[in-house]
Design brief:
Oligomer: single chain
Largest sheet: 9 strands, mixed
Number of helices: 13
Shape: globular
Bound molecules: N-(aminocarbonyl)-beta-alanine, zinc ion
Length: 462
């Protein structure tokens, strides 16, 4: 089967060119002009042709706070595809007392029969023992080449510095990448108990008890530990200027420190968590949303490459049935926001349409850099031989984001009523049309598990 995408502007991280794209089977065969006949022709006049998005931070069905994230691999990946994302890297969890391979097998059982799009997995490592350290090597052999460790959520996910350093030292030898949730969980927990004892139970207190200084402190510590262990480190969901400064300083010293931010930190603020009544619970995530002044710094970080990736940290919980668990106690509100469907359009609308970043930088942040950092060489670009994961994007289409029209299985949108410009029109994965004309053509189980390569630095210097 040959498909030809004609008359579009092809955007990669390096250039923008008027060109056609010829797909043969699952692969891109050629990019250029006069590429001959095809079985299917997609007209991309006045459209951009860009790589399918790669979202390297999602939590389908994550167990959290006595409940589970509301999207499973079927609903979440279908929504992702509608939004222009054709690959996710979800985060499997090692259960307490479980081996890493048990955690990985559990996630594969959830994902393989259901996923509409290709997926890789990271692993949350919850305890460090000699046996688990050696299992980390085995995980890399199985294509899970990155481990998420937590400096927050004491008693649930948090590891102490010694355990983090042991995991880092092992990973320095086995070729993996360490991802850190960097917030000072100990100090935050003291503040949380203090606030609750003072009767401060509303959602806004989630934000007030997790100050940006404690994200900065933990990020600095994470990078210092990584420097000592000589391991590359990737800071997840970076939200605050203090944390970004720690990344900048580390990179300036030559540490292989990388970081992502997420749309919620670029567009939403602490004020959203203070909305009337219990409405603020819709915005409870960790790290929390920050005062508006942090946003300009994050944009600067994206432009100057101190932040290399925009991912979503998609972790949805229904407002009515799940966020409500914390009605009388902000610390019982399940942490996380929906977003896997909105990333492509939100970053285009707030980044490219405003002139903040170029279309090439957009592609780099949303697909090319995630593919490079997370060992997915066949994805993230438009070139002969690459997987034909493509988005035909209408940069002029206007629409209003709403839970009434989104495809994520969650009963609210953080961006309800926001007017955005730019929308994925046709979405292809490995040459197959997943979305066209607002209709979905994917099938659960068609997404493949991607065995990712060990970490390889995109450049000799960070
Ligand atoms: O609030 C968040 N971010 N929930 C998902 C779990 C995590 O820490 O990434
Ligand atoms: Zn986290
Ligand atoms: Zn997360």
């Amino acid at each position: 089967m040959k498909t030809l995408i004609k008359n579009g502007t092809v955007v990669t991280a390096a250039e923008m060119t008027a060109a056609d794209v010829l797909i043969e089977g699952e692969k891109i065969r050629a990019v250029g002009t006069d590429l001959g006949e095809a079985d299917k022709v997609i007209d991309a006049t006045d459209r951009y042709v860009m790589p399918g998005g790669i979202d390297v931070h999602t939590h389908m069905e994550l167990p959290f706070g006595g409940t589970f994230a509301s999207d499973d691999f079927a609903t979440g990946t279908r929504a992702a595809a509608f939004g222009g994302t054709t690959t996710i890297v979800d985060i499997a969890v090692q259960g307490f007392g479980e081996s890493l391979s048990q955690g990985l097998d559990t996630w594969l059982q959830k994902a393989e029969p259901k996923s509409h799009i290709d997926f890789g997995l990271h692993l949350i490592v919850r305890e460090i023992t000699p046996a688990i350290l050696s299992e980390m090597d085995a995980m890399i052999e199985r294509g899970v080449s990155s481990f998420k460790l937590f400096m927050a959520y004491p008693g649930v996910f948090m590891l102490d510095d010694a355990s983090i350093f042991r995991a880092m030292s092992r990973t320095a030898e086995n070729g993996g990448l360490i991802m850190l949730h960097a917030e000072n969980g100990g100090a935050i927990d003291v503040l949380v108990q203090r606030y609750l004892a003072e009767g401060k139970t509303a959602p806004i207190n989630h934000g007030l008890t997790r100050p940006s200084s404690m994200e900065g402190e933990a990020t600095h510590r994470a990078i210092a530990l990584a420097e000592l262990a000589e391991v590359p480190v990737y800071i997840v969901h970076l939200s605050a200027k203090e944390a970004l400064d720690a990344v900048r300083e580390g990179r300036d010293r030559g540490v292989h420190a990388y970081a992502e931010t997420c749309p919620q930190y670029l567009y939403l603020t602490l004020e959203d968590m203070g909305r009337p009544g219990f409405e603020g619970a819709k915005f409870v995530c960790s790290p929390p949303l920050r005062p508006r002044e942090h946003q300009a710094e994050l944009w600067k970080g994206l432009v100057l490459d101190d932040l290399q990736v925009v991912s979503t940290d998609h972790c949805p919980f229904d407002y009515k049935d799940q966020k409500i668990l914390g009605k009388d106690d902000f610390s019982a509100i399940p942490n996380g926001l929906p977003g896997v469907e909105d990333r492509y359009t939100l970053l285009w609308d707030g980044g490219v349409a405003t002139g903040e970043i170029t279309p090439m930088r957009f592609v780099e942040l949303i697909a090319t850099a995630p593919a490079k950092l997370f060992g997915l060489p066949s994805k993230g670009t438009i070139a002969s031989g690459a997987d034909a994961d493509l988005v035909v994007f209408d940069p002029h289409k206007e629409r209003v984001i709403s839970s009434a029209t989104h495809h994520m299985r969650v009963d609210y949108s953080c961006y309800e009523g926001r007017r955005v410009t730019g929308s994925p029109e046709v979405v292809l994965q490995r040459g197959n049309v997943l979305v066209e004309g607002g209709e979905f053509f994917g099938r659960p189980g068609d997404g493949r598990f991607l065995e990712r390569k060990p970490f390889s630095s995109p450049s000799p210097r960070p």
